Amino acid sequence: PRTDPAPVTGWPAEFAARYRALRYWRDETFGAFLATRADRHATRTAVVGPSLHTGRWTRLTYAELDRAAGAVHARLRAAGVRPRDRVLLQLPNCVEYATYLFGVLRSGAWPVFTLPGHREAELTDFCRIADAAAHILGGPGPRGADPRATAQRVAGRLRATGHVPPLVVDAGAALPEPATAPPPAETGAEEVAFLQLSGGTTGTPKLIPRTPADYLYSVRESARICGVGPETVMLVTLPAAHNFPMSSPGILGVLHAGGTVVMAPDPSPPTAFGLIESERVTMTSVVPPVLQAWLPAARRTGHDLGSLDVVQVGGARLADAVAARVGPDLGARLQQVFGMAEGLVNYTRLDEPDDLVTGTQGRPISPDDEIRVVDGDGRDVPPGTEGLLLTRGPYTIRGYYRAGAAGFTPDGFYRTGDLVRRLPSGHLVVTGRAKDQINRGGEKIAAEEVEGHLLAHPRLRDAAVVAMPDRFLGERVCAFVIPDGPPAPSAAELRRHLDERGIAGYKVPDRFEIVAEFPVSAVGKTSRRDLRRALTDLLRANT
Ligand code: J2J
After folding, report:
1. Which residues' Cβ are closer than 6 Å to ligand 1?
2. Which of 32, 97, 338, 506 shows the greatest Cβ crowding within 10 Å of its Cβ?
3. Can you list the domains of the chain with their CATH numbers?
């Protein structure tokens, strides 16, 4: 039998009461969410995209999506999946993403939002932490990887440590008759409904418990702030599992409002521009490197991008100069989004003046988002000066899943690890980061996690993984490694080692610096963090 989900650090009663009284938190659950929309918008198009099952470009109305979600629920139930079981959801962008997402939610099981690029190292960790009952997969993974083969390796690793492997569910298979669907599970709006992934800063991943009450508040407000309505056609170019395309306002915000979600198989200009033209896309969300690829391509494209109204950019810092090109090159309005899967999301508003839209990362969704900007000792810095961002509010978690309150202040503020300046208008400018994380074009990589995998190599004595500035991705991953004496393993050998460890491709260092000792400027540092900081400074000075 699976373990019960461990208790989660929730909001203190007085905060919960306030959020309820202000109608931030409501009774809607995800099971009801889709059914209500299916009643209201039955014949409107909900989701468009490739289908894993038929291999064809597919359109689902709200009624069809609801029926398909019911069939997924029936299938999961027949397979023994029960409410509150944890289920890894690992699919590329396709119509099944939506049917399986809502099918799992309807069953009351908790989706764990893994990325298509995650491999056996990450998946095994997620299975162990969440004691996953099932793993939904399909399609080829990145670089042609077969997710079924990966799942088999996960099963081997889990068995070796006495864990029960999850049941594998192929989302490309035919579904049972929706008529056999049980009614949606009766779970509460303030109970955990899914686990989102944290960018992470430590050796083991952290999972983020979110409830319908808190998440749907952020989704409704995001849809309102971003002007999402029944006429919105949203192109999903980022992996759908990311919190940004899921909720800011993302897939859920668009379905909330009766609009249409278009699943892009990849974010390249030919694919994205072709879909913008053929589906009359009005809005999309991208990370800065994707935008940087789009801008020059848009100037010479033959595709009609005239339907595009809003381009949201977030996940990593957008340079002000690039921000200024969105209007001229794409003929769309820019919206900057600075968010995090733990909660807090900031938007520049669509009617704000250009200098705020191009020069800041926006302001919080909610009047009850509490923002503190503090120094290293936790004292508030003077207004307008750089400091560490702490936040607390109606949709920001109070603790990670099965991890207590590490990463939070005693009074419940989440330590974002981001360095910001706060303007008198409340807008935040992201000025840097004070966490052991690399932001590789929006993908977050915990330095310690990669170091751990490197140190498992028998011939390395030490390893420090840091961010390396990069024109396109903002940052790439650089590993400084000290061999255990000659001959030193080559970079190719270390890449092979990491491939065997089974880590996601985006985490594999882009560059290896094989050194006898850490550089002079970095030695004598008392903590790993200081060492990483010195190495980062060194790389920055040399590029
Ligand atoms: C600088 N850094 C940013 C930005 C995120 C909407 C949008 C993004 C995310 C996301 C999200 C940034 N400028 N505009 O969940 O709902 C960095 C910060 C932050 C971390 C969170 C959403 N936007 N960041 O990126 O959980 O360092 O969420 O703390 O993946 O990304 O990463 P993640």
Report:
1. 199, 243-244, 247-248, 314-317, 336-341, 345, 361, 416, 418, 430, 433, 439, 444
2. 338
3. 34-210 (3.40.50.980), 211-365 (3.40.50.980), 368-390+406-421+429-435 (2.30.38.10), 437-541 (3.30.300.30)
